[in-house]
Amino acid sequence: MDFKLLVRFQDVHLRYGSGPDVLHQVNLTLAPGSFHFMVGPSGAGKSSLLRLMYLAHRPSSGRLSIFGRDVSQQDRKELTMLRRRIGIIFQDFRLLDHLTALENVALPLTITGQSLDKVRRNVSELLSWVGLADYLDAKPPTLSGGQQQRVAIARAVIARPSLLLADEPTGNLDDKIAERLLFLFEELNKRGTTIVVASHNEGLVNRFNHPVFKIVNGEVRLIRNQQNSPVTPTAENM
Amino acid sequence: MFGNKNDVPLDRDASSRFLPWLIAMMVYLATMSLIIAITMNKLANRWDQGLSSSLTIQIPAEPSAEKRRTLEKQLKTFITKIENLDNISRVEQLNDTELNKLMEPWLGKDILLHDLPIPYLISIELDSSSAKTIDEIKLILAQDIPNASVDDHQRWLGNLLGLTKIIQIIALLVVILVGGAAALMVILVTRMGLAIHRQVVELFHHMGAHDSYIASRFQFHALKLSIVGGLSGLLLAGITVASFSSLLGQANSAILPTLTFTSGEWGLLLLMPLSASLIAMMTARLTVLRSLALMP
Ligand SMILES: Nc1ncnc2c1ncn2[C@@H]1O[C@H](COP(=O)(O)OP(=O)(O)OP(=O)(O)O)[C@@H](O)[C@H]1O
Ligand SMILES: [Mg+2]
Fold first, then answer.
1. Cα distance between residue A83 and residue B205, in whole Å
2. Residues with Cβ < 8 Å from A165, sequence gap 6 or more?
3. Which one of B6, B12, B209 has the shortest CB-CB distance to A111?
4. Does residue A105 belong to any structural domain of this protein?
5. How distant, in Å, are the alpha carbons of B13, B140, B143 from that of B83?
6. Which residues of B touch A94 (CB under 8 A)?
7. pLDDT in tens, A41-83
């Protein structure tokens, strides 16, 4: 990789329409292979920050670089290619009810024009890995919440993204299943995927040894470092 | 290269049911208008030929017997001259009996013709319609019998031809308007589809689908529906024409047109469903691309 930072926010502001700043003066960086949590109360701007990262929104001002590229300098085709390197797990999964689990997971590949037949084997292997070998042809409405979530995760990682963004992936799961899910993310992280998990469940977050960003009043702060030690505020991480 | 073809479930939309019908009606309208235009064109050509290849010359009657004799001599010379022109199939001076027949409706049967000053009428028919021949005849006439008047049916024909032109223009206008209406309809249907499947479209966009990939889903959907609709419309038009032409065949009238088409005209008719499908496809594509352009 010809860049040291996978994601870089420089004085980024975000507001919707003519409203107030939802995110204010954001400066943060993600190194390749890192694993971060993002916490903050409801409405703090976690989803907004993730949407900036998966290029669903443009910063109102400031500079945002993904994979070493200034987002504002990229044309439409280049942005599309950047998006293909990002896996997203939505809080509400956003599975397509008319497609089978296998077809859903294959989407990131088929939307690039690959035929379903060509990717079928890879996809079923991944579905087996998340424990859904018997549900390849099941439609999402017939799956349990936890099973749907695993389909959503498989879909997010099938194209081997460099960056995996998870928005409240543990939202409506009980703590035990949520914990298992996070172990799965750690597994992916060990294989080189950079991960950001947004969650309002700070208790769960505290059980894992990963740096944590907290959004308060539109400002993003690193509140905890890798060694599970609270960060003493410095100019660097403010 | 087409990914998973049913990833946007457009087939289940209501549009899938009503768009083919709308397209069928529009193609039917357009095809029928085009048939009217073609037929009017043929009719105009036929009338043009039939009427401008004949003319009637009228010479006012002479009351004095002596002058009448000179005039009749002049007429004979004139007729000979005309007969010697090229492109003349028949020159005939209408005789008293024929004149009587012509006058009967106005004057009644019992009036004796030679009691009244009746004009002389000469009818000329040409082999083929030719402005040149008609001009030659008029020139000779002006020299030999200056007080004669010529009726070459041009004014009457002119009005009639003008009418067929207007009908043709209106028919073509209908074709264009129907095309525009079809495009508007497809825009509406596509926007509806985009609204219904907004989540899917956004998802694909975030996953890194090219705009053209997303557009292709809508564009082939519109193409499929409009081919079905277009061909049905053409078939319906074909049935209409077939039943009309069998009716006209029974009437067997010289003035009415025949509903047969050359291969070029068939091609033009086939162009209606084809262009409807193309319009639908391109409109759907552009509509989707325009709405995707609003996404960052
Ligand atoms: N599309 C939008 N248009 C206008 N305002 C928005 C939009 N999306 C989010 N907001 C506002 O931005 C703020 C941050 O919202 P966001 O969804 O990022 O919060 P969040 O931290 O993800 O909250 P939660 O934990 O409830 O998911 C909120 O005040 C919200 O009302
Ligand atoms: Mg949120």
1. 8
2. A50, A53, A54, A86, A87, A88, A89, A195, A196, A198
3. B209
4. no
5. 75, 12, 16
6. 199, 203
7. 888 999 999 999 999 999 999 999 999 999 999 999 999 999 9
Residue of A nearest to B217 (CA): A111
Residue A63 domain flag: yes
Q: How large is the greatest C-alpha to C-alpha distance in chain B, in angstroms?
A: 107
B contacts of A116 (beta carbons < 8 Å): 3-4
CA separation for the pair A131, A150 (Å, rounded): 8
Overall number of domains in chain A? 1
Question: Which residues does chain A have within 8 Å of residue B4's beta carbon, measured at their own beta carbons?
Answer: 99, 103, 106-107, 110, 116
- pLDDT over threshold 80, residue B155: no
- Specify the pLDDT at position A31: 93
In a domain, A178, yes or no: no
Spatial separation of the C-alpha atoms in residues B103 and B118, rounded to whole Å: 9
Could you please state the CATH topology (level 3) that the domain comprising B53-152 is classified under: Alpha-Beta Plaits (3.30.70)
B166-186 per-residue burial string, b: 16 or more CB within 10 A, e: under 16 = ebbeebeebbeebbeebbebb
Nearest CA in chain B to A50: B206
Assigned domain for A100 exists: no
In angstroms, the separation between the Cα of residue B10 and the nearest Cα of chain A is 11
Residues with CB under 6 A from ligand 1: A 16, 22, 40, 42-48, 200
Domain, as residue range, for A13: 1-85+196-238
Per-residue model confidence as pLDDT tens digits over B230-259: 999 999 998 998 888 777 766 555 455 666
Contact A107 B206 (CB under 8 A): no
Q: What is the CATH number of the domain that holds A212?
A: 3.40.50.300
Closest-CA residue, ligand 1 atom 10, reads: A16
Looking at chain A, list the stretches that DSSP marks H as alpha helix, in order from N- to C-terminal side. Answer: 46-53, 76-83, 101-110, 116-129, 145-157, 175-190, 202-206
Tell if the CB–CB gap between A96 and B7 is shorter than 8 Å: yes
Residues of chain B with CATH 3.30.70.100: 53-152
Q: What is the pTM of this model?
A: 0.78
Distance from CA of B2 to the nearest CA of A (A): 5
Average per-residue pLDDT in chain B?
83
> Which residue has a Cα nearest atom 17 of ligand 1?
A47
